[in-house]
Structures are given as C-alpha cells and as structure tokens.
Amino acid sequence: MTKIIGIMASTPNGIIGKDNALPWSYPEEIEHFRKITDSQVMVMGRKTFESAPNSLLKKTPIVFSKNKAIRNLKPCTVVESIDSFLEHILSIQCHKAFMIGGAEIAELFLKNNLISEFILTKIHKNYEGDASMDLSFFDKWQQILLTQTKDYTIYKLTNPQEIGK
Ligand SMILES: NC(=O)c1ccc[n+]([C@@H]2O[C@H](COP(=O)([O-])OP(=O)(O)OC[C@H]3O[C@@H](n4cnc5c(N)ncnc54)[C@H](OP(=O)(O)O)[C@@H]3O)[C@@H](O)[C@H]2O)c1
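Above: query sequence and NAP SMILES. Below: predicted holo structure tokens.
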C-alpha cells in the first residue's frame, strides 16, 4: 500500500494561497519542500500544477483534473477521481507519494482520510489570501516539532485513525 504524505504551509488562519501563488516568500521553506519531495511521486490539483515551477516537478506528477488536455501543457498523469488516483498508484507500485495541495485537493484527501502523515509548515504571521485549508482536520493528530525559525515552525503530524476509515 502506498503511504500518502501531505506537505504544505499555512498561516494560523488556514490561508495557503493568493492569486494562484504563495502569499509569502520564505526561500528556506521552499528549500525544505524541495529536499523532502525531490524525485518523489507528487500528487496535486490542476491549479497548483499550472503554477508550480518545472524545477519542482522532476518526476512526472499526478494531477487531479476533469480535463485530460492539461497533459499538453507539461508532462503529467491526469486523474479525474480518487478511484482513478488509487488505481494509478497501485499500478506504479510506489511506496510513498506526496500530496502537495492546493486547497481543493488537500480537502479531498483529508475528507477521504487518505493521508497518514502531514508535514505542515505553520507560518507565524497571518497573510491575506483566496485559498485556505481547514486546520481543524488536524485537531487529534499527533504533532512533532521538526524545525523552528522566526518566521515559521515545521511539524510532522501523524494521523491517529486507520487510513481509509
Ligand atoms: N501553501 C501551500 O502549501 C500550497 C500548496 C499548494 C498550492 N498552494 C496554493 O493553493 C492555491 C491553489 O489551490 P486551489 O484549491 O485553488 O486549487 P488546486 O487544489 O491546486 O486545484 C483545483 C483543481 O483540481 C481539480 N479537482 C479538484 N477536485 C477534483 C476532483 N474531485 N476530481 C478531479 N479533479 C479535481 C480541478 O481541476 P479542473 O478544473 O481542471 O477540473 C480543480 O479546478 C494557489 O494559490 C497555490 O499557490 C499552496
């Protein structure tokens, strides 16, 4: 079974994006993301895929979209539902995959209880934005502090529930 790990950053209010970009600029936080996800299988929503720099997408990403034609933009595997996603990761036999957002895909995965671990960067300041995630999903998750800076703190959150239930 593939372990699905979330990796995202959020303000204390759950803001994760603005105008299809990150509302903040913390280069070292991006470096942390790159190190963890480098050459790993990544799954994301179509809007995040369109805004992600090619340098982040070394391995062919898995992209949620109802529109198969996005494959013509940059190389990717398009999945149009959770079922087709699960079928695909079974077929490629990967041990782990990183769910990198955005808001719609994070909610889809969290609601369906597909994520066993979440590497969450908690940005200390609030920023304005138009994409957000519901942080109450993590209320009962176990939390381990990984890194602390003056701008953000990175946690590893572990899902206490059995995956898929
Ligand atoms: N802070 C962070 O860690 C972080 C990480 C990633 C992204 N972001 C930010 O988040 C924002 C983008 O998030 P978003 O929520 O607007 O978009 P998104 O989740 O990246 O993509 C949404 C798209 O995914 C597809 N989709 C959604 N649910 C689906 C389903 N059940 N089945 C098939 N396809 C589905 C649809 O594509 P189609 O319309 O093509 O059908 C939908 O328009 C940007 O501002 C980005 O910078 C932040």
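The chain has one domain: 3-154.
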